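A common beginner's mistake is to predict each chain separately and then try to dock the pieces by hand. The better habit, illustrated here, is to supply every component at once so that their relative placement is modeled jointly.
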Amino acid sequence: MYSDISLNRRKPTRPLISLVPMIDIMLILLVFFMVTSTYLNLDMIPALAQSDRPVPSQAAEAETVSETLLIRIGTDGSPFHQGKDFTRDELISLLTVRLNRNPALHVIILPTGGARLQSLVTVMDIVTSAGAVNMRVVRLEARQ
Amino acid sequence: MRIFRPARRHHPETIIALIDVVFFLLVFFMLIGRMDATAPFDVTPPTALTGADMPAGGITLSVAADGTMALDGEEVFLQDIDQRIQSQLEADPDILIRINAHRDAVLRDILPRIAQFEAMGARDVVLVVTPPGPAR
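With all components supplied together, the output reads:
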């Protein structure tokens, strides 16, 4: 005996996972990070490098051969040399003349303790831009 | 005579591409964003034309305009700074020390610290600067 019975199994319905809440959350996170993130372009200038420490032979040679230029920085941030205030352009020309004469010129910067950091960085910037490769920042320390 | 215009086939817009783009943007902003508090106070670094790229890692000493200091985002007293830097230097003598000082901070607050770090044996101490902004 053969009976024509067909059993149709229902196709299981696929659970629908809605993507909309995920997109909402992602957009909220995106806006949050866009608003809160601050892109800072930070650079650095070396204040103390391992190469600053001269080997004894170099130190002795530097003492005998090198020429030094002392630039002081006043409390108002203006650089002066041998008691004379220098503008930025004047300082650049002084450095250019001295560096042309002696490319190994040692530039020593002696800032007043009350000077602002920006004034020291500006002078260091000028000295580096002028082409000086030997630069040191020194400070006076009270004897105890 | 009736003319039947063929029904336009509706292309369902895929939102997968949108999700991809949003996801990439999200990851981008998460990576470049600075959520870490490098200083609990306002620090505007000085501007410099000759700054070099900032190396990664190291310790960050932040100095506010009034001389307040923070080490890796945590405000600390002067005596604690030396102690903590010393211990870090003992663990890694080549560790980089970044000084992120406000441009209006006075040098009597900064230079003695650099000298102290040098005396402790620090080899790399850098000042954080920013390149000058575009002329307005």
